[in-house]
Amino acid sequence: MLAFTNSKIPKTHDLFEIYEQIDELQLEESEIILLYCATEYFKEDRYPNPNYCLPPKEEIKLILDFTEELFYKICKILNIEKNLYVK
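^ that's the sequence the OP posted. Answer follows.
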């Protein structure tokens, strides 16, 4: 959304920090928690790291479902035809 509106894009992997800069997007508290959760997937020192383990499959599915819903929500806000971007 920031790129679409020609806004400055922060140099961060913190999804909540990015979300805070998007006035048009309103998320529920449960969705904000998923932003924090997905942000934790990014670790600069992940590889190689013997202490890293994959998140549970149920959590991954929650995040994937959320990102799909978020994509559709953003397409609606920006008035973009979502079918152009979904195979």
